[in-house]
Amino acid sequence: MDYMYMDYGLIIISTIIALAAQLYIKHNYKKYSKKQTETGNSGYEAARKILDNNGLQHVGINMVEGELSDHYDPRNKTVNLSTDIYNGRTIAAVSVAAHECGHAMQDEKGYAFLRIRSRIIPVVNFASHAGYYAVVIGLIFSLSVLIKVGILLELIILFFQLVTLPVEFNASNRGLKQIKKLGLLQNKENNGARKMLTSAALTYVASVASAVLQVLRLVMILRRRDD
To answer: What domain range is 154 assigned to?
Structure first.
């Protein structure tokens, strides 16, 4: 019974961490997506200025559907901005655009953690699916070896999350420096940009915490079955 409560406890803690992170970024996004930039820069214009001023004229900027679906694609060298970010002339739009340009700058400079993350993505995609099935089948048929395989695959996902942390924080730092250097926002607006960029990066901290709790939960399940 105690084990069951611990399992539920870890699930609840993991869920709370993930929800808190999402609520925090959505709160800041909602707040700063209503604050128009005094400089008049849109997300697209901010991104283009950052890229051009860093010798990245070859990097394209696309508009994509969805909310907070913004990302940098190193395969085709494009910064992809959601509609509200692409067209928006808000602190949120400039901040998110600057963050994605930070990834483009990382790619150009050969940032080590970005290269590592890009190379292990196929393995992580496999692990995220195979790990689930390994654990479920292991639990159904009481096969400890499959649970161990599931734990190993979860550790791969945890490693990916840990590598992602410096990538995201570094991109935010690069983005904020460019905002200040190029005057994309007024000085009094930079604090809002910092909050936006920090809250985005904190979602990845939450992902690491959730991955750690998932591994811990599986280890507890394995130990319980081996007892």
So the answer is: 2-226
